[in-house]
Amino acid sequence: MASRADGLHVGIIGGGPSGAFCALRLLTRPAESERPRVTIFDRRPFLEYGPRGCNMCAGVISHSLVSNLRRWGVAIPPEVVQREIDGYRLVTRAGEVQLRKPAGQAIYTAYRGRGPRWADWPEERSFDGFLLRTAVAAGAEHVADLVTDVRLGARPRCVLAGGEEREFDVVIAACGVNSPMLRRLAGLGFGYRPPRTASACQAEIPLDAGYISEAFRNEITIFALGLPRVKFAALTPKEQHLTVTLIGERVRLDDLESFLEHPLVRSRLPTRWQMPSRICFCFPRFPIACAHRPLPPDWQ
């Protein structure tokens, strides 16, 4: 691709971790490389409580992700980290096994948005918000608007919700499988197909912070119990909540309730615990395969 006089201009659809990491990678290239202009489109600043401010994910930050951030000189603020994870525990009807993390590795849990509905933090705790601000501090432009369409041509264009069109040298879709934008991309005619997905049901269960520390020992507990429609489930400890994640086929809220009443799950909850009348929950989809032909033929 020929270099333009004003430098390469890259448009990124989606300001979550994929979009923010892409922007950071482009903007922290070696000094001898041409520095591109980067624009991130996401109407959310990830500052709201509940699903509206969240990317609907359990919020586990892997060691490789932490290492990449450190390599770029980025440290995750303490208020963003909900818990440091010591390992995993796999539970089946036949027994359970503990998997400790290797020494020296860092695994954290965090909220993708500000936190669950009805939470009230004294400071912002959004991991996605932190990454987006970091990308902006590195030189990216954040446009708080929704991209409704992409049009190909000599230079691709992003069409915004208000009708404005912006032209770029390269457009990168980092919007996730829950975005309707993937259907628009599939209609552009170059053979793109979104990745296959599984359905999920997630909920934030409030619990005493001390109880979470004692009962779960900073471990993510994964269950394979052979429940109808549920392939597996997980309990991810946060500071004052357990994130419950069920993944399977068309999982529903009553599957969540049945899971929490299973003896192997119920034994890990307080003796007189009952499902709260108000919980923060969502029904996202998760990718279980790669996308097909993600690049137009002339970009490959």
Please name the defining characteristics of this protein.
18 strands, alpha+beta, FAD/NAD(P)-binding domain, 8-stranded mixed sheet, 2 domains, 4-stranded parallel sheet, globular, 7 helices, D-Amino Acid Oxidase, Chain A, domain 2, single chain, 300 residues
SSE layout and pairings?
Blueprint: E1 9-13, H1 17-27, E2 37-41, E3 60-61, H2 63-71, E4 83-84, E5 87-92, E6 95-100, E7 108-109, H3 127-137, E8 141-143, E9 147-151, E10 157-160, E11 165-167, E12 170-173, H4 181-186, E13 197-206, H5 209-216, E14 219-224, E15 230-237, E16 241-248, H6 253-261, H7 263-266, E17 280-282, E18 285-287
Parallel strand pairs: 1-2, 1-12, 2-8, 5-14
Antiparallel strand pairs: 3-7, 4-7, 5-6, 9-10, 10-11, 13-16, 13-17, 13-18, 14-15, 15-16
Query: What is the total domain count?
Result: 2
Low confidence ranges: 1-5
Rounded mean pLDDT is 91
CATH fourth-tier homologous superfamily of the largest domain: FAD/NAD(P)-binding domain
CATH architecture of the largest domain: 3-Layer(bba) Sandwich
Distance between the termini: 11 Å
Helix and strand sequence: EHEEHEEEEHEEEEEHEHEEEHHEE
Percent range for β-strand residues: 25-35%
Radius of gyration over all CA atoms, rounded? 21 Å
